[in-house]
Design a protein that fits this description.
This is SF4 helicase domain-containing protein. GO terms for molecular function: ATP binding; DNA helicase activity. There is one protein chain. About 40% of the residues lie in helices and about 20% in strands. It has one domain: P-loop containing nucleotide triphosphate hydrolases (Rossmann fold). It is an alpha/beta fold. It is globular and about 65 Å long. The chain starts with 5 loop residues before the first helix and ends in a 9-residue tail after the last strand. The strands form 2 sheets. Strands 3-2-5-7-1-8-9-10-11 form a 9-stranded mixed sheet, with helices on both faces. The structure holds adenosine-5'-triphosphate.
Length: about 290
């Protein structure tokens, strides 16, 4: 317990002044999406827990990878990724495809031209040089994860920890497999973020939209263990693509990042572009649709 006295308030005001003097030096980890970073004062804050949730196949693994790639490759900030959703090889193909801008299906089928190989070679060098650490365990308990994360923060200076699949972290005890599993994980991840002073980013599933419902936009109630995530997350992003339902859509190629909860500011919906062939989301160019 501490008294909110003059010394503590001076320190806090010094931090605010330093940020005002050099807004680009924010300790937040940027997402690379201009409107998102503007809304969140620079991105994902150290000590905070961000949850990206979507219905199946909407691209939440892609969005998580985009944020990690932006930090590690574009900004040179150390990032650690755990994924239960894909093999290391698949993650690497996705990364190479995005970075080289060579379609993922071409890389998998081998239908590549000379220029593709040149771009892949350049991307390979950029990925090799980046402070990006990847782990693809088939199974992991929260305690094992916490130990690995602490080690990476201490030895590699990791500032962003990302986990693709919060539901796949195993509880310590078998009897926790049912019931409060995700809720417990959320609380433990939040504590970890605060203790290690890093930004933690996780993905979570949303229930499928009922077939008869026309407006498929997701809601907080669609989260598995919605209360725990809604209370525990500092930032909750519901990812939605109208064209992800195989129907004709006049919003083809667009994706909504619905900020359903933001502890430090207003909620909003940010629209970005989805390029599935390159496995990435990008800002929509400012002049798109004009003229
Ligand atoms: N080569 C490609 N060209 C176009 N779209 C692609 C390609 N490869 C994947 N996609 C699209 O990317 C989306 C899947 O991306 P991602 O794996 O990030 O989604 P997810 O929400 O994490 O999926 P899941 O629910 O299966 O875990 C799908 O809509 C898929 O159609």
């Amino acid at each position: 317990m501490m008294h909110l006295g003059s010394e503590y308030l001076s320190e806090t005001l010094d931090l605010i002044k330093a940020r005002a003097a050099a807004p680009d030096d924010s300790t937040a980890m940027p997402t690379g999406f201009e409107d998102f970073d503007a809304l969140t004062a620079g991105g994902l804050r150290p000590g905070s827990l961000t949850v990206i949730a979507s219905r199946p196949g909407m691209g939440r693994s892609t969005l998580m990878a985009d944020i990690c790639r932006h930090n590690a490759l574009a900004k040179g900030r150390p990032v650690a990724v755990w994924t239960f959703e894909e093999e290391a090889h698949d993650f690497t193909v996705r990364l190479l495809s995005t970075q080289a801008r060579v379609a993922r299906h071409s890389m998998l089928s081998g239908a590549l031209v000379e220029d593709d190989w040149t771009r892949i070679a350049k991307a390979r060098g950029q990925i090799e040089a980046a402070p990006l650490h990847l782990s693809t365990p088939s199974s992991l308990t929260m305690a094992q994860f916490a130990d690995e994360a602490a080690e990476l923060v201490a030895t590699r200076g990791v500032r962003l920890i990302a986990i693709d699949g919060i539901h796949d972290i195993r509880p310590e005890r078998r009897r926790d497999l049912h019931g409060r599993k995700d809720g417990t994980a959320v609380q433990e991840l939040k504590t970890l973020a605060r203790d290690l002073k890093v930004a933690v980013l996780v993905t979570s599933h949303l229930k499928r939209a009922p077939k008869q419902v026309v407006d498929k936009r997701p809601h907080v109630d669609d989260l598995r263990d919605s209360d725990a995530i809604a209370y525990g997350a500092d930032l909750l992003v519901l990812l939605h693509r109208e064209d992800g339902y195989g129907q004709e859509s006049d919003r083809a190629g667009e994706a909504d990042l619905i900020i359903a909860k933001y502890r430090h500011g207003p909620c909003a919906t940010i629209t970005v572009a989805f390029q599935g062939h390159y496995g990435r989301f990008i800002d929509i160019p400012r002049n798109a649709g004009q003229g």
